[in-house]
Amino acid sequence: MSQTVRTRFAPSPTGYLHVGGARTALFNWLFARHFGGSFVLRIEDTDAARNTPEARAAIFEGLQWLGLDWEGPENEGDCGPYFQSERTTIYEQWFQKLRSAGRVYEDEGAWRFRFERKQITMTDLVCGEITIDYRDESNTPDMVIRRSDGSFVFHFVNVVDDLTMGITHVIRGEDHLMNTPKHLQLIEAFDETPPKYAHIPLILNGDGSKMSKRDEGAALGDYPKKGFVPEAVVNFLALLGWSPKDDSEIFSADELISKFSLDSVNRAPARFDPNKCQWVNQQHLLKMSPEQFVASCPTEASFEMIASVQEKVSLLSEIPEAVSFYLDPDFPIDPAAIQKVSKAAPYLVELASHFENLADWTCANEAISATATQCQIKPGQLMFPLRVALSGKAGGPDLHTILGILGQTESIRRIRRLTTLLPS
RNA sequence: GACCCGUUCGUCUAAUGGUUAGGACUCCAGAUUUUCAUUCUGGCAAUAGGGGUUCGACUCCCCUACGGGUUGCCA
User: Fold this and answer.
1) I want to staple A406 with a disulfide (CB 3.0 to 4.6 A). Which of A64, A349, A410, A423 is the partner?
2) How far apart are CA A341 and CA A421, in angstroms?
């Protein structure tokens, strides 16, 4: 691409960042980065009622969390202001262009843009060639671009901004597909060159319905709360409507940047699958170094404790529960687990005394083997009751890791504690 | 209603006219791991329906059905 690529994400502040919007931002970002271009963030805050600091913050925080760096608010480039509310003099100038060209007329105090009555053919980078008929005025009435209160409507400001900000590629949701001929007409009236357009499919709920604010997975701000890591969400979102065309599925952001292409974006809407999103998150947790993993989850537990559950959780939010048995001397013991080890009391008693006589705690392994031999059972039959004694659960971290973290005295205490709960 | 886009396992998707229609998530069954998890192997499961074109169609064309979008002095 000879021209420097400039993409943009142009959300309006609504109080939260929708995953669909987040994915639109991601595709724009990936595309720009792929070609070494810029990704512009423009805030469409013409609706004063919803334009609160909190609403704007939701957008910034969401994109920051995902790691999508932008040119725009808080990171100014040469094409500001990046808030539409601060660009009215620009709109005024561009409105005059249409006025002197005779393309607008007044209608009950508002100004309408006069469409050319012809067929409009556009070439969409995702959808291909599409022709819309503007010859019939009753189907496509001239659109209002300036309200009777003097403010400008979306279609007008959106186009003027894209033009004045030097946007080369407009990647947006498919809900804008039918707006594009309107925008093309405007650009033609300005005698400007249009950007390239790419309309990406929408994200739907699991049942195929439209995703609204309260639906599961809809608000990006919920993802960190639920224990997702940003690189996993980026990965999962990229897979919704785009495919690398091979069997790979887990990527870093850098890998996505190098693989991403609009050619391989789908046309059909994608449904949100919480299961797979969580699996992708687990894969990313597994890929982290123990240091990264521990750092991403602030809890009171020690490094060893947290690191020991890295392979056991698929969400960061599961960690506190997963390590709780280490910290609570009177941790609850799962009744179902007790049931399964109800006959193990004699073995545990034997194991406790072996442990007690152990001079070197790092040799706990041998003590387990020795006890098993003495009791004429397989080591595996001893491991499970020991696990229940130490953690109160049927599953959990590696047994030897647990023994090491708890230490000799506490391990023995916990074994004795369980035996008192079992029939002897 | 009109116009536009779409439709491959339940879900995300691969297969640019020739494959036993592949992979992944979920679920189930095994294996490995002295325990747990990871991992591995296997299984269930799809071209919306009907017409064409073609030696041959998931792929191209038409019709129907279904889904989504647009049709604002919202963005």
Assistant:
1) A410
2) 11
